[in-house]
Every structure is written in C-alpha cells, then in structure tokens.
Amino acid sequence: MASLDISTPRRVAVHRYWPGLRKAIGLALLAALAFGFIIPILWMTVMSFQAGEKMFQLRTEWIPSVWHFENYPNALSRAAFAQYFLNSGIVSLSVMVGNVVFCTLAGYGLAKFRFPGSGLVLLLILSTLMLPLEVTLVPTFLVIHKFGWINTYQGIVSPLLIDAFGVFLMRQSMIAIPKDYIEAARIDGAGELRILLQIIVPQCWPALSVLAIFAFRDSWDQYLWPLTVVSNDALRTFPLGLVQFGEDYGNPPTEQMAIAVLATIPVFLLFAILQRWINRGFGLSGLK
Q1: Residues 130 and 259 both lie in one domain
Q2: What is the pTM of this model?
Q3: Could you tell me if residue 7 is inside a domain?
Q4: How many CB atoms lie within 10 A of CB 98?
Q5: How far is CA 200 from the centre of its chain?
Q6: What gap in Å lies between CA 91 and CA 189, rounded to an integer?
Q7: One domain, residues 51 and 189
Q8: Is 33 exposed, middle or buried (0-12, 13-18, 19+ CB in 10 A)?
Q9: From the centroid of its chain, how far is CA 263?
Q10: pLDDT in tens, 147-194
C-alpha cells in the first residue's frame, strides 16, 4: 500500500505565503532601522519642551507633564541666532548652487567626452575622497589668507563649491543617457551648453536632487572650516553659534535642545521639497 505524501500541501502553502511573509519581514526590519535613526531626534525634540532639571533624569519622560514652549523664545533671545541662521543660509545655498553647477559640468565632461588622461583625471578626483578636511585644512587656510578672504562669506564658501562625490555622482548618472540623443542634437546644430541644459539635465533630476540635499546638509552642518576661517561674531554660522551657546553653562540644556531642533528644520524642508524627484527613480536611464 503506497504511503501518502503529506508534505506536498505544506510546501504549496509555504510557497504561496512566502512572498508576503518576506515582504512583511523586510518592512519590519526597515521600520526598526528607521526607528533607530528617529529616536535621537525624537528625544531631542521632547527635551526641548521639558524643564531644565528633566534633562538629567535617568528615566525619559516622553510626553512632558508640563510643556515649556518658552524654551524656544528664551533660547533665541540669549544670542544673535537670527544672524547665525542668515549666515548659514547664505553659505549653504551658495555651496549647494556651486556644487550643482560645477559638478554637473565636470560630470558631463567626464561622462560624454573622451580625451587623453580622462581616466586618470577621474581617478585623481576620486582619490581626494580619502583625504579628510583636517589634512587640507592648513593649505586651504593659507590660500584663503593669501586672497584676503578671512572673515568673509567667500572665504567660507569657496573651498566647498565642488565635491569629488558630486562629480562622480553626476558622471554615473549621465553615463546611462544614450549618446544617440547627443549626436542627434549636434546634427541639428545645438551647442554643448544647450545639449547639457535641454537634454542631459532634465534626465538627471534625481541625481541633482540628491546632490543638492547632500551639499546643503554638509555645508549646513560644517563646523571645523567656519571655525578656522571666521573670528568675527557677525559672520558666525549656526553650528558655531550653537556650540558657543552650549559652552555658556548658564544656559539651560533644554534651551540648547530647542536651538538644535531649529537647526534641523532647513534640511528637512529641503528634503521635503526635493523628495518627489528622488522618488521618480534615481537609476532612470536616458531611454526611459
């Protein structure tokens, strides 16, 4: 008498429900990872509405029993944070625009033109990623000092106007665009600048959005270089003002958290504005 194979229905059930189970597991892992990134920001935000003594309690009160909204106006009144905010805005927007323009031009040249030593040029550009800012800090400062740009906006902005990662990012994005589009435009008499602006750039919006966010964020959070090149209080950026505010032990720590919360808002706003371009697909090819 033949034995019945009862494992077959189980295998069918596993294969039927496995795609949904795998998706649920992936979503759970992503949710846990996102929570790990969000929890420090959430703690900082909660602390900004607490009383000063609650900062040092072993147990965090995630929902304040008393909301101290006055922490924000009190903190803003203790230093010239409006000026610091304006300085950071000018510097960060200038760095963002500079990176978008110069990295796009460099990426287009490396992606669509072949010349002797192009591979070496790309290698040299990428090699600069291995050099931290501390290595080039003194030579860069001497150059800025020679130009007479100490305690000026251009002194803060100029060393940050182009980044090796941005050049590589734009090059990789433009390589995927078929050369047929460019050749057709050249036959029609279009110049290289027109080809770049009307054919290449519209197909690189996801990469440009990522570059803009990274450039703005890195410049907004930059501390060491502005500290080196700025000694005038009127030109201090937001991170410099925040550190100076924290070094004054008379300022309540919850008010320091309030200033830190305000410092995160511009980056979140920029991401909210540009995220729809990123969601359209970072890896879109020119053909699509």
Answers
A1: yes
A2: 0.81
A3: no
A4: 19
A5: 23
A6: 38
A7: no
A8: exposed
A9: 14
A10: 999 999 999 999 999 889 999 989 988 888 888 888 888 888 878 888
